[in-house]
From TrEMBL, chain A:
Entry-linked PANTHER family: TRANSKETOLASE N-TERMINAL SECTION-RELATED (PTHR47514:SF1)
Designated name of the protein: Transketolase
Family from the record: Belongs to the transketolase family.
Listed Gene3D superfamilies: 3.40.50.970
Record keywords: Thiamine pyrophosphate
Domain Transketolase N-terminal per the UniProt entry, residue ranges: 18-264
Automatic annotation (TrEMBL), chain B:
Species of provenance: Sphingobacterium arenae
Upper taxonomic lineage: Bacteria, Pseudomonadati, Bacteroidota, Sphingobacteriia, Sphingobacteriales
InterPro entries, sorted: PDH/Transketolase (IPR051157), THDP-binding (IPR029061), Transketo_C/PFOR_II (IPR009014), Transketolase-like_Pyr-bd (IPR005475), Transketolase_C (IPR033248)
Pfam families given in the database record: Transket_pyr (PF02779), Transketolase_C (PF02780)
Domain Transketolase-like pyrimidine-binding: 3-168
Protein name: Transketolase family protein
PANTHER family with a match to the protein in the record: PYRUVATE DEHYDROGENASE E1 COMPONENT, TRANSKETOLASE-LIKE PYRIMIDINE-BINDING DOMAIN-CONTAINING PROTEIN
SMART domains attached to this UniProt entry: Transket_pyr
Amino acid sequence: MKESLAKKSIEYRKRILKYIYKAKAGHTGGSLSCVDVLNVLYNRIMNVGPSNFDSPDRDRYVQSKGHCVEALFVVLADQGFFPESELETLCQYNSHFIGHPTRKVPGVEQNTGALGHGLSLSVGMAIAAKLDKKDYQVFTLMGDGELAEGSNWEAALTASHYKLDNLCAIVDYNRLQISAPTRDVCNTDPVADKFRSFGWEVVEVDGHDLDALEATFRKLPFAAGKPSLVIAHTVKGKGISYMENVLKWHHGVPSEDQYEQAQKELDSALLAL
Amino acid sequence: MGKANLEVFSETLQHIAESNRDLLVVTSDSRGSGKLVPFAQRFPDQLVEVGIAEQNLVGISAGLASAGKQVFAVSPACFLTARSLEQIKNDVTYSDNAVTVVGISAGVSYGALGSTHHSLHDYAVLRAIHNIIVCAPADNFETEEAVRQAAALNQPVYLRFGKRPMPLLRKDVPFVLGKGRVLQEGKDLAIVATGEMVHPALEAAALLNESADIEVTVISMHTVKPLDTELLIQVAATGMPILTVEEHSVYGGMGEACASFLLQEGFHNRFQVMGIPDEYTVTGSQQEIFDHYGLNGQGIMEVAQQLLGVSQEK
């Protein structure tokens, strides 16, 4: 029987924590904030999987906020790109499963990790689709803190100049970055107005409401001839009571007690479904 | 006298584009300085303009290449290999997207515009990045061959071009990326030059021969990375002094690459690196800057004489 999307989201969180706990490293808070977006994209929206990853017609996903790679890895494993057991090697010597996406891992579209790169890469892919008259879509996930990188705004200009309505950027808008709330580090608000003024069509959505996310992505493109931006309002550390909206969980690794508590909370959430 | 290498670059791209619809030129408001206006007129659908945004230029080029396009990303070398270095490192080389990164008006081609517009660091930074071929063609022949070979390779390449017309050198010595070209053979001294320094190296060799019967081997080491180590060993094994010449900082360029390789191979030939010294670079025309630093036939000859221990009066 097909697992429900909600169940997958909880299972993904359990696995994210499992592998971060085992590796004693990872970007916990951001992986938990963006994993619902990934769940909906890979399970409901994108036409990409192990069987068509070589196809020039596949949809593309570029994770610009590469540090939240644990969310991507567990979703790719679930899609069948590689056996989940390989994640046991996360961050170990000579493993392909390192702290940022690399193409050595099946299913990863581009090597990322330095912030501010994904949108330009995605613009290139989207221009290629237009030139080739192909109808694949290009998705990229960015952080709200990442929007301080100037290259994003170069790419935002180009995307609207070329009318890339086959491009959808998603901002994982969790309002926290490594050292402080984003508004206190370098305020990127109002994100929606900024992108609108750059010629994008913007939709804001609860980034943990799976139905709302799916409904939002199903409306793509939001406007003909315009690139689409989804501002996914999320909670950093979502799903674990003591992690939610707490700065130190940006890349905090749970202790044994904390890990057990987190798994219990997620088990309870599963039972409550 | 031939044309500017950049013009030959543009003409060669047009030849390739006639039969390859996947060839794309991506520019950052640099189609004029890149001599690409005729390309843009003939193949408007094969030129992607991104505006004055070099980081974006390289990122978009990588995205296009990942979708199967054969991409030449063109921008002044000074910006392309500094401002967008992280995009070259991550999006092109690390992700292995086969973009040909084309640095135009390189070295001190924009002489009077000052250090913002000079690229005397590009070999150094790109040498330290894995998975990119670094090549500076010397003349129109090397340019056409380099562009064709880069287009046929499915891997990242950096091509570096100046903007002034270049003398035509030998065509009968084959050009292969990664293989130096021996333009003349001599037994007394080897001058290993790259890019637009090859011609003054030949002039210096002629002067040395006329004035003191010194027979000089002159090599166009157009590919700075990977170095033609086989050829370097052949030359060093003769015991000849070796003089390297490049339009680049004396730090981190072709000369240091040769020196490092040969020393580690156990060679102890007398060795001298000529290039732009580590100082605030003087301004003026490209030729005036070359003359200031002795990067001309006469200046190279004088350094060669010192290296050979030959007095200048002799």
